[in-house]
Amino acid sequence: MSANERPLIGSVFERKTPSTPTVPSSRFKGTPGTGFPAVQHRSKSAFARAREEIKGIGGERLNGVPSVVPSQAPRPPPFVDTKPIPTDTDALRSQISEENERKIASMSQEEIEKERQEILDQLGSGTGELLMRIREARQRKAGQEGSVVEEKPVPEKDGSGPHQIAEHRIVHPKPVAPGLAAKPGVLRVRSLENIGQSAPSPILVPSSSTRPSSRTGRKLRFAEVTPDDVHVYESAPVSPKRTAFALPPPPDIKDDSIVSLGVYKGDAVPKKRPYPTDSPTDEKAINQTTKGDPEPEEGTPEDIRRRYFPNIPANDPSLAWMESASSDADPSAPRFDLQGTSIPASLSATLPSHLGLHHHADGNRAGYTLDDMFLLSRSTVPAQRASMLGILAKIARRLGRQIREDDCHDKIVELVGKEGELRKHILSAGLAAIDQVGSLGARAVEVIWECLVEWDAPTSELEGIELMLSPDIVSSMQLDYFLPRVEEMFAQSALPKESLAQLLAVVHRLAQQSNDLAETIMNTPRLIPTIMRTFVLTPIPALADSPLPKPSALQLLITLASASRTNALALVEPADALLRFVTLLPDSSPFPQSLATSLLTHTLRFYTTLASYGLYSHIATSASQYFSALGKYVLSTTSAQLRIAWASLVEAWIVCATDPHATTPPHEVLWSQVCGWGWAGEVRALREGLTEDEADRDVWAAIWNAEAAWLEGAKINGVRGGEEERAELLQVLGIAFRHPSKGEVGLEFKVVRNSLDAIQKCLGDIPGTGAAVERNLRTIARHGHVLASALRLLLACLPPWNGTSLTPPFDLPFSDLVGLCGQLAKHLIWTLPDSAPHLQVHLRPLTNLLVHFHGISRHMFANEPRLAQGLAFLPRLLPGDEAAALVMADTISLVTPDFAHVPHKALPQDSIITMDILKPFFEHTIRPNADVYISPLHASPDSIRRSTTLRLPGAGAGGGEDKQNPKTGLPLPRDWLTAPLTHLLRSGTSPVFRALPTTWDASEVDVVRATLLLLYAARFVLWNHGPKSFVPGPAEVVFACMKVCMLEHGAGNATGSGGMDSSEEVFRDEFVEKLMRELLAPYKPSPPSSSSTSQSKDHAQQIPLSELPRRTSLEVASLPYLQSTNTPFYQFYTDLVALYAAVSFAHPIFGALLLPPLAMRYAEDYRKLVWQESEDGGGAAAGVVRTIRVGVEDVLCTGIGLEGGEGKPDVREYLYPVERDASLLAAYVQALFPRTGTRSVQGFLKLVAVHHVACTIWGDLEAGVSPQNEDANVSWRSEPPQPPLAGPSPSSYSQAAPGTSQSISPSDNLKIKLLRSVLARGEGSSTLREILLYQQSPRGAFLWPPACYEGGGEGEGEGTAGEGIGLDGWRAGRLEFVRRSIGHEVAEKVKGVFMQN
Length: 1397
Known about the structure:
By secondary structure, this protein is an all-alpha fold.
């Protein structure tokens, strides 16, 4: 055994046996005389039986101390006294003193010294001094009280010798009143005040001891102390199981080494209850005292004490749990009851405690705060945890409702704006308990269901799009742990049916979130088989306790299959099991008919989803007899949903049969089989019993789509392009769609007319926000689906296109449909998905309507209106419409120079401009990712072969987070017409140049020419035939021309066999210059004299700016191009300026394109780049400002003119508000007065510099009011009103007397410095004269140069700004300002300038 291990057996002592054997007493003393022992009941404890034996002996309860006489007379201990111990303190002290004296008297000197040494070893060397001080203090106190204690010797009793038999006394404890303190295990702490009030029990001295001899004789002696001699400090809060910490009192002499722990207070240590007495009189006194007090209020701590603990004092620490504890909780925090209802603050303080709303940290107030609930939701008590989760679930429902509904009646005002954060916390609390069982697990499922499913209740049935709602909430669920737990819960089926249904809805909501999550669900081991076994493959016939099948489980399969082709392939195998719902029709099903109909409807929808990928269509052949019976049953049923599901499945299978090679595997269903099954006749028979009511409109749309699919397939597989099939169907449609003008109106014509009226009404009543928006969109989508189906059927009834217009085969309200499509194209309804992307799915029927209408338009309209229609419809198409978008984009092949009215003499002689070279760029723009193919709303033979998903992509640019590789290019950006320029600028990384067809051979110049010609023609046809809102705006056209100028040498050269001509920049090409000049012409100001108009404007498209879309900012217009690379427009402009300085050689169009960012509504950084860096002589813009030679008439104005004006370009967007930056003003002065040998700024830039310098110096210009326009009331558009600069006003000029001296305010320092600089630099120059006489106003007519340089053109008819040639008005004011600020001498020098005409 090692030294560190303890022995199993300790010390062994031999017991001394008495000489006289002890006679054992019989344990069956009280046995009856029968000779048999009494029956011993095991239900009684040994203690109870002992008490019965005592009672049986015949004695009452002993009040005295019984004597125990041992069988052997042991050696009596020398200090055992058998007389009763007095209860008086003085008497007790005297008795102890007598005993000590007797003991000392009987001891030898050696024993006394030995005992003394032991005391010193235990208590220290200062023990004697301490005891002496205590004795002196007690004597002083006794002397002060006037009582003297006399110490008398206690005579020895007879028989006190060593051979006397010692009498052992057993003192029974006094009875304790029932209460908390009487319970076992509760420690009772006696306070110092109780010393001496009750006698302690005598010490039992055993006759023999097994303790070692070294410890047997050791005795501890303590001095008698009083409460005044002991200082009590609380080392911790007093509790029933914690005693007070006692320390000796401080000495009388001050000792700095002793640190005080505080001053003792009487109430610091709660007083303990006194031990109850045996006297009934005392108990009566206590009861009388209690009864004498007033009755406390019911439910208060005092009431509880008197009711359940009457014998315990009120200040007992064991009852501290009943007292009201202080709380740091925020009183304004909302509190909730057990139903999740908010409790007002005024009510929470008055509610009684029996409602169960006080079981939390702050017991003073009723109700639970959110912090309380989140804390208790982690409780180790399952019932408490389940209760809190139940409350959180109800709160989550209210929060979700108040964030969805603007007029929520039970809104929690304190939590408005915090719903999202609370949703995450509540969901976390539910997820933490998802692995629990019983009611706790059910509550956890309810919390998760409320936070995920019910929170987004309006979208719970939304299919066809990735919801992508609250991605942070879904990502916090840790699905790699959550989904396996869900599978276990489904497999065990231990939760209630309602909880399992909620859990299934949670899984469905996760599948709706995104295609990636749907794939995660599919890849979770055993999850889908378990769901099938639990919710679908239930026993048939159903047992008494077995669950019924859930249609929601079939909806989950539909959602998973629509997410991806991979998921659909995995779900083909369990699809066979669903035939049970087809073979057992609702009229013969063991399930309730409504449930059987729902199961059959969802099964048909699931088969339709698989058929949209070309999958599982063989079931139509292998189970043809069952589907034949189903078709007959559908004709007899009144269920609209079942009819729609059956017609949609027939449509999908017909599409699969149209091209059997497109199915997977091929030839699963053939066209001959479709004809043999007679589906066309069954679909036609579905019309029976339908009305024009709104409830049947979806059925009409399903019928028309199925018949359209039949006719489209017949064109490919039928005889003579399906002529016979069309003729057969038109016999029915001709009557059904009869126009009112031809007799009795047809039923189906009424259906179209009613849907047309309904959708027009909804388009005019779309609310701005709230749940009403989605409800309105659902209605619009429903009626739009009806109209799109009717147009698809009409298009299918037309024979194959042969280039000639045809008469419509049946009647439709075409004029109203034309107006509706035009209204839809420019309606703001397309902007709603910007705030809620999932609303995009409701717009798919509207894009389908536009697509089919555009298909009919070639039979109804000429080329120009048709092109305008395609250009207007293309930006509205959504993901899934890529095939239709490519068809619309083919209409650009109509654009030729003749089509655009370009003169032949302006055409290049070296090549022919054709739009075919642009098709590869537009195809990539529409479908940028070849690996993603989103199925259209109605499947086609091409889509069933190539589709990768049936759902629209979720929120994000291009439907994906990767901007460099988006899932789709729809909807198209506004700059889609200039997409070829984008690919040219990024030719090194553009995938288009790596996948060009071998027949494509064009140069860079050819691509630019075709693009600019298309842009020019598009603006022309849209302005004349289409919605003007689609006309490219000034900023968009200017930015397109900027991209042309950014093309450098050799951009995109190795493209075809001929390559690209890189001998010169593209912008120098003659035809490119011509097209850019024509494109920019409408945005140039018109001089006062029309005769000065350049020849290029003879063919320019005159377009008022006021009627163009107000996208006037270049920073906004450049976003579609720059956003993908996160490049700011300022960086693009910096590169453009550097390129101009390097290669332009003062090209006029290139120089004009640099001016628009210098307008005053743009940031001053653009102006500093051109003006300051140019004058500093360094940087990319060195010398640029002196090479831009653009006249005022060639300035590009991308603004929107003046309010109330004619909508014409106005150069004052560069002039107002007046420049305030001192560094820019200095750059203007330096450009106007350059160093010797340097040319000054010319043209329009000179006007800009003179204007800002003059308006800063002269007070009459800074106010923005010139004399001839003081009464004008026209405000400058696109800029807020600007306060005038500080300085003297025109009236102050006339008030100052000539030659007087006047102090200059600090606000005039900039003006004075600028004036000094102008006068010093420009002495004797014409530019100085122009600054001194400059006139301009932000209101009224613009003063063109040179009139603005000559004081408003007095005497020349160019203006009326001056009031004469004399020194009065603004001339006198300016001269006076020069005199006051510079001096009289300088004023006299410039006086002649003001005197001149």
